[in-house]
Every structure is written in C-alpha cells, then in structure tokens.
C-alpha cells in the first residue's frame, strides 16, 4: 500500500485528503478557463449522482468568456471541488485584476487547496519534479511544474521521467489529447483553445470528453504538446 503523501509544511496547510470510500463515482476534470458551457456539457454527460465527486485540476478562470459562471457552478455544488491553478494564483497575487471579480470571489479562490489526494492519487495543477521528494516542492512549483528544466514546451516534461509511486492527475500543460501513463494522467486538452474538456473516470479507468468547444483564445501549435 502506498503511504499517504507528505508535503512541506506550507503545502500541507493547503492539502486536502479525501476518503474515496465515501463516494460512488469520482471524476477528475481538466482546465476549464472560464468555459462554463463546456463544463455544463461535461457534467451533463457524467450524469452525477448524489454521492459522486468531481475534482477539477485548477485554472477554473481567465481566458474564457464566463469565469464568474464557472466559479458559481463549482462553488455552489458540494459534489464539485477544485485545486488551485496558476491562474487563480495570479489573481491572488494581484498580477491579474480581471474586471469580472465580485465580492467573495477572491476569498473563494484563496480557499482552494493546492493538493487533493486520495488512495494513491495526487491531484495538482502543474505536476512534480521526479528528481525530488514531494516534501521538497514549494506551492509555486506544484502549480507551475511543466519541466524540471523550465516552464516552456521544449521538454522533457516532468511526467516523462516520473515513475511513481503516486499517480498524479494534472493540468496546466496543454496536450493534443489526454496523457495516459501508469503514474501520470494529464487532463488539459485545450478547452479554451477550441479543444475538448476532458474528465477521467477514476472508477472505470476511462476518459470522458466534450465535443471540441468554441475557440475563445488562439494558441500556437508549438504550445500544444504532442502525446507520445
């Protein structure tokens, strides 16, 4: 049995541990980026029951047309939880000051955990450095990890050299299709860039996607990673 993951003191304060046996179905969903219509479509496809759980990998907001609507959808449904993404962090640091922010939105974004874990699964926005222990990671690294060598799309990506023991579900790095590895599952399939919104059905070990969505923001091909 894989032990409970242990993080640094700063990360542990923002780590939510879930008992998976308390839920029927569990789904992990990729970056939404303000695309409320796509999220509603995906949730409709999932046909959630009262005892189901949806964990989003962060970046609920920015770039798409309805960030407030996405916040409302997630915040108002007890079956939906999200980790914090780098776009939430930019707002909290004051680097981005979107005009759509309402009273209570900043407090909600600040309340989002950096990590959600259950069983042998770890849900973070960015990823982890395979050369270091979990306890050696900062909050910022967990939010933004793309490659131990830098933040661009030149690679190698962190998951290419990661061999467990935890199974990491992540977003942040846009891929042409989901990453499906033994110890890493990548779920950002470019919803806001005209791609699909992707969920992973944890109980059944399968992906569930929306049809390709409207392009709310253009993105160059060299910033959409191929999946080997």
Automatic annotation (TrEMBL):
Residues 26-176 form the Calcineurin-like phosphoesterase domain. SUPFAM superfamilies: Metallo-dependent phosphatases. GO terms for biological process: polyphosphate catabolic process. One of its GO terms (molecular function) is phosphatase activity. It comes from the Archaea. One of its GO terms (cellular component) is cytoplasm. This is Serine/threonine protein phosphatase. It comes from Halobellus ruber.
